[in-house]
Amino acid sequence: MSNEVLVINERVQGEIPDLTFELIGKGRELAQALGGSVSVAMIGDLSSLDAFGGADKVYTVEHPVFGSGYSAQAWEEAVAEVVAVARPKVVLFGTGTIGIDLAGSIAYREKAPLASYVVDLKVEGSDVVAVSQLYGGKLLAESLLEGETVVATVIAGSFPSEAGRSGGSPEVVSVAAPKSLDSLTLRPVAVKEPEKSGVDITAADLLVSVGRGVGSQANIEMLQELADALKVPLSASRPVIDQGWLPKPHQVGKSGKKVKPKVYLAFGISGAPEHLEGMRSSELIIACNTDPKAPIFEVAHYGTTLDLFDLVPEILEKLEA
Amino acid sequence: MKIVVGMRQLADLVEELEVADSGVDIDRDFVKFVSNEWDEAALEEALLIKEQVGGEVVVVALDEPDVDQTLYSAIAKGADRAVKIVGVEEGWTPTRLRAQLLAKYLESEGDWDAFFTGVQAADDLDGQLAGLIGASLGVAHAAVVSKAEPEGPALRITQELGGGTLAESVAEGKVVLGVQAGRQAPRYAPITRIRQAMSSTTIESFEAPEVELGPGPKVRKLYPPESKGQATMLEGDPVEVAEKIVEIIRTKGLVR
Ligand SMILES: Cc1cc2nc3c(=O)[nH]c(=O)nc-3n(C[C@H](O)[C@H](O)[C@H](O)COP(=O)(O)OP(=O)(O)OC[C@H]3O[C@@H](n4cnc5c(N)ncnc54)[C@H](O)[C@@H]3O)c2cc1C
Ligand SMILES: Nc1ncnc2c1ncn2[C@@H]1O[C@H](COP(=O)(O)O)[C@@H](O)[C@H]1O
Q: Which of A147, A187, B71, B87 is the most exposed place for a label (fewest CB within 10 A)?
């Protein structure tokens, strides 16, 4: 067993996500406490290898299958191979698609405990203590991870990314691609970038954002009127999009757009971690939610527990006056 | 295609959640339990596939508060059979335990083609179900799935990679999927159909077998986040609060 902290770089194509650097930065802190080192697993696309100055070692896995796109099975086999070679003490994933895909199965294969939705990590003796955000952010759970190898999936934005960017030049270890990559039953076919659309919620200084609290498609009209009166786009949380009440380009969050307006007005949005990931760095957040315990109030600067159906018409009135 | 859909009950997040005296679980006495919303998306995708290419949809769930309602409603929407895994201790069930139990059930069903479940549940402290079941059965799995479309005997799977980027892969052979959203929003089951399902369907029982739980996180405490007290609450009636909000936006130079 080593005292290595292994970070799984969640990049299929394009830029290396900020989250990887967050994990390297936190990984360094854990490694120092454990008396070990920090490494990164880089699967498939090996471009921008030199970005990993914050790590001591980079494991790479190459295979033609990674050129065809993303398959959870291909990544699982590759990551499992890196884990087998590195024998890390800690494996860190993000709660992106790849983390959700692989953390459970890697932990299962390694007979390792796993904590997900992690927002904080520390070392205690030879164990790791994780704080996880549960129930949509309404409660936190502190848990102890014991074992030769432990696994955590970390919510994006939990740690600063700067710490993971600095440093020297890591050793590169090429890990032989496992044979299993030649006989996948889940074959990658393509990766598709989002289609360009007319609305660009990322460019607005002010956003009127609507959540499931609006109740129905018909009620969206009232929020649309407000957005129109302010001459800004209407954005939304995921359930509003999944219900088909607004098109996908309007979605804010982990699987939508990251926005950073001067003012973000949230109506009927609970503030689940996946939503916060897309808007928490807005300059000013004003939230309207009837539930005083809604997690959105933890990131909002101003809040009201008034019913949105009582409040929005008054804002409209005020604007028209 | 025979698709098994794993569903579960979850504390309604809109409710106030209190920590139990044990300090490591929620107080389950007064919370309302509802069906996990992502499991409903998984069911919808399975029903769409059945409508396209025929086959069978079986829903399976652990015996949890008000689960019958969820299972009958699945039947009313078009599922063919409902199975309840009984004999599991009440309280928080680690996802790893759920996975082991469901894996045993799936082994007993034998001839299924795909297992769908929700991408996550809000109390998945020890991992998401699809990956854990996939690993325990040795079957390929994928999560954050937004489409699963039949392509001959295979399934073409679309996963969201974030920011609108999509990854497509093709599953040839058994597959386990964690569904984020179906091709359409979950259909609605009219109350009359649910009543009909209740009188015409018998929920099958599957006795929970002994399983090896394996290592998991040891919960030391469960607690509400310490309020950073950041939000200044705007007091007053709707007219007054509206005035304050408009004033704030105006100060930022965003209203003429
Ligand atoms: C992999 C993954 C990716 C995801 N990506 C995203 C993403 O990109 N963006 C995103 O938003 N979510 C995303 N989610 C979903 C996320 O977990 C939450 O389910 C979602 O953010 C909840 O949306 P909501 O706040 O609108 O709805 P809810 O959580 O249902 O909240 C509705 C809120 O409205 C309030 N309310 C109700 N009625 C009123 C009223 N009359 N007036 C005022 N308030 C009222 C309620 O108190 C409640 O807090 C993702 C989930 C997963 C698993
Ligand atoms: N996500 C969770 N939500 C609520 N309770 C939990 C959660 N995780 C663990 N627990 C509780 O923590 C206690 C100890 O868990 P464990 O040591 O993992 O078996 C159990 O009584 C569980 O009920």
A: B87
